[in-house]
Specification:
The complex is a heterotrimer of chains A (251), B (353) and C (68). Chain B is of the alpha/beta class and 353 residues long. Chain B is built from twelve helices and 15 strands. By secondary structure, chain C is an alpha+beta fold. Chain C has a single domain, classed as 2-Layer Sandwich (Alpha-Beta Plaits). A two-stranded antiparallel sheet of chain C has the order 1-4. The chains are: A alpha/beta (251), B alpha/beta (353), C alpha+beta (68).
């Protein structure tokens, strides 16, 4: 018998601190698989966010740095501009990337920084206990929108991929999900491509991964994945929002 | 005779940084320090370096954090309101024990304040500025030559102690031109085994981090860091003494204020008043030894500052309140004249503090 | 014939593998508690396993190794 599935080398052999059923673990694994399969673990430098994935620096076997809340793309820029031969990625949540770090996100995309951004959108602040995120859905009940997100009071959720795709700068902007096996496999391909783009010097590649937060959504892990399908994906459709190289090849 | 070139203070910092091996500059425009960015924008691409204008002060200090963590000599520069924005990054850099070099060419505050020279960021620079227990090495140049030499010194100290070295200058020294020489520049290099270089699959991964969720671990880290700070306090304080041998009064001033004060001291000496000057060159570590020794000889101190009186607190602490300390100050971009300082000296001579 | 190996002590009993399995091979061992205090996922019907690795694909804690 041959091993057909095992833990990737780039993922450290330590228990993850995430809640039961939290897809962060799946997304970590996909990143680690991409590093393994592209043979870039030894060149990779990862930037961890503030949020549930803050301790990602312990989970990846490559060199890691922990950034201030929202600043991961700036930190990654600093590293990449010094060490262009290394592979630099950030791993950020929705509060980190789309709220407090929006300026860093937009400007690193506009500069087409040659980095890979993994953006985990689960529509809530997990680490602090379930507050409204910039991507919380209209009507979504959270600790700080206890009567449901009222868009007249606190505005509309931000569609990061759609917004970034309007910029000239970035190379590759795509949205995937990890709510079922098929989507996880697609997400893997997108993440791998986002790293391959960096290796090819193509520039800023962002993969938005629509994820779940069973604990703060108040659901079982399986219910949460079903809510991704029924409520999240209609608002945040899966798809490639920008792929400059593919567009060039086509026409 | 060393070769001398005429340079603006801000440009001297930029040129010295390049000579110190800095090849990465990240910054955001703000008066009165923008000449540093302009100089870097011109020079860096020609010497294989990187100049990048960031989207904000916050982004620029975090780019510095990343580049410094990658093991590079890197810098940013700004002026007072911009340094407030950088405070977040400075705290993370301290908490991660990463060397960085930061310039504050101060302007008047608070708020948007003004664009004229000031020394009112003394507290911000020497007492923290950002959150948490930490220190920065703070260097206070009083001439264009010192803008250059303290920049090189700052890069050396930052690498040696794995912390931020800050030049705390002011708009006057930043803008004025004086002849300077780079001939005495001593560039020190330090191993950086902690740097993010990629593991090359040959070593355990390096982690640059300031998060310690276990309180005992965080306490241990802070204790260790303060042991290092203690060693710096004992060995790295720098100051200049002027006419202190027989002084009965001591003026304390740094930066541009010290140059005004020096003139006033000379004028007071001409009147027969035995007064000297101690000029702190490092504001942290503060030259406590020199001040405390002076307190045993003089009958009082005069702190001359371009602020509402910030360094005066350190003068009192250093001298353990053994002698009275008067304040001679202007602020908001105003600079005291030598006559104003002379008046304070005359008053102190009469015992009026 | 395929073989699954679980790092049972790291299992948080979330059940995503159980739901992902197209053959209904897996179950949560409700009468067992692992070191972390969770009832872990276990193989209930090994004969049915086809080694598709859907379970491992959905496992957030990466505790399943699949051999075929």
């Amino acid at each position: 018998m041959a091993v057909v599935f095992e833990k990737p080398k780039s993922l450290a052999n330590v228990p993850l601190h995430y809640c039961p059923g939290c897809p962060h673990g799946i997304i970590h694994r996909l990143v680690a698989e991409a590093l393994d399969e592209l043979g870039i673990e030894g060149k990779a430098i990862g930037v961890a966010p503030v949020g549930c994935a803050v301790m990602a620096y312990d989970y990846f076997n490559c060199d890691m740095i922990e950034a201030a809340h929202g600043r991961a793309p700036a930190v990654a820029t600093g590293i990449k501009r010094c060490r262009p031969e290394n592979i630099v990625f950030t791993y950020q949540g929705d509060g980190d990337l789309a709220s407090i770090g929006m300026a860093e996100t937009v400007h690193s995309a506009a500069r087409n920084e040659n980095i890979t951004v993994i953006f985990v959108n689960n529509a809530i602040y997990g680490m602090t206990g379930g507050q409204m995120a910039p991507t919380s859905l209209p009507g979504q009940v959270t600790q700080t929108s206890p009567y449901g997100r009222d868009v007249n009071h606190c505005g509309w959720p931000i569609k990061v991929c759609e917004m970034l795709a309007t910029l000239e700068g970035p190379e590759y902007i795509t949205r995937v999900a990890v709510n079922n096996v098929k989507n996880v496999n697609k997400a893997k391909k997108a993440i791998k491509k986002a790293f391959q783009n960096q290796m090819d010097g193509k520039g800023f590649s962002l993969v938005e991964v629509v994820s779940a937060c069973p604990t703060n959504w108040g659901m079982t892990p399986q219910q949460a994945l079903e809510w991704v399908e029924s409520d999240m994906l209609p608002y945040y459709p899966i798809g490639v929002y920008k792929d400059r190289s593919a567009a060039k090849e086509e026409g | 005779m060393a070769e001398r070139v005429l340079m603006k203070g801000n440009e001297a910092i930029a040129e010295a940084a390049i000579r110190a091996g800095c090849r990465h500059y990240f910054g955001y425009p703000i008066t009165p320090q923008t000449e540093i960015a302009a100089y870097m924008a011109k020079k860096m691409p020609k010497i294989g370096g990187v100049f990048l204008q960031a989207e904000s002060e916050i982004a620029s200090i975090n780019m510095v954090y990343g580049a410094a963590a990658a093991g590079m000599r890197v810098m940013t520069s700004s002026s007072s309101p911009g340094i407030s924005l950088k405070a977040e990054g400075l705290s993370y850099i301290a908490g991660s024990d990463i060397p960085a070099f930061v310039v504050n060419v101060q302007r008047g505050g608070p708020g948007l304040g003004g664009i004229q020279p000031s020394q009112s960021d003394y507290f911000q620079a020497t007492k923290g500025g950002g959150h948490g227990d930490y220190k920065m090495i703070v260097l206070a140049p009083a001439s264009v030559q010192e803008m250059a030499s303290l920049t090189i010194k700052g890069f050396n100290l930052a690498d040696k102690y794995r912390m931020t070295a800050m030049i705390l200058a002011d708009g006057t020294i930043g803008q004025m031109m004086e002849p300077i020489s780079f001939e005495d520049a001593q560039i020190e290099t330090y191993e950086k085994p902690w740097a993010l270089t990629g593991t090359n699959c040959e070593r355990k991964h390096n982690v640059v981090n300031s998060l310690y969720l276990q309180p005992d671990e965080l306490e241990k880290k802070n204790f260790e860091r303060y042991e290092r700070y203690k060693a710096i306090e004992q060995t790295e304080a720098m100051w200049e003494e002027y006419m202190m041998e027989d002084a009965e009064l001591c003026v304390v001033a740094f930066g541009i204020a010290s140059r005004v004060a020096k003139n006033a001291v000379a004028a007071a000496r001409a009147e027969g008043i035995k007064v000297g000057l101690i000029r702190p060159i490092t504001l942290w570590p503060f030259p406590t030894q020199a001040l405390n020794a002076a307190a045993d000889k003089v009958k009082g101190f005069i702190s001359v500052e371009l602020s509402m009186g910030q360094m005066i607190e350190d003068v009192r602490l250093a001298t353990q309140c053994k002698r009275p300390v008067a304040l001679c100050n202007r602020c908001g971009g105003m600079i005291p004249s030598p006559d104003e300082v002379l008046d304070s000296i005359r008053k102190a001579q009469k015992g009026e503090f | 014939m395929a073989k699954l190996t679980f790092q049972t002590d790291l299992c948080k009993g979330c059940g995503l593998c159980v739901n992902a399995c197209p053959k209904g091979c897996l179950t949560i061992a409700a009468d067992t508690i692992n070191k972390k205090g969770y009832s872990p996922a276990v193989m209930a019907q090994p004969d049915k396993c086809i080694g598709c690795a859907f379970c491992a694909t959905m496992c957030p804690d990466c505790i399943i190794t699949v051999e075929k």
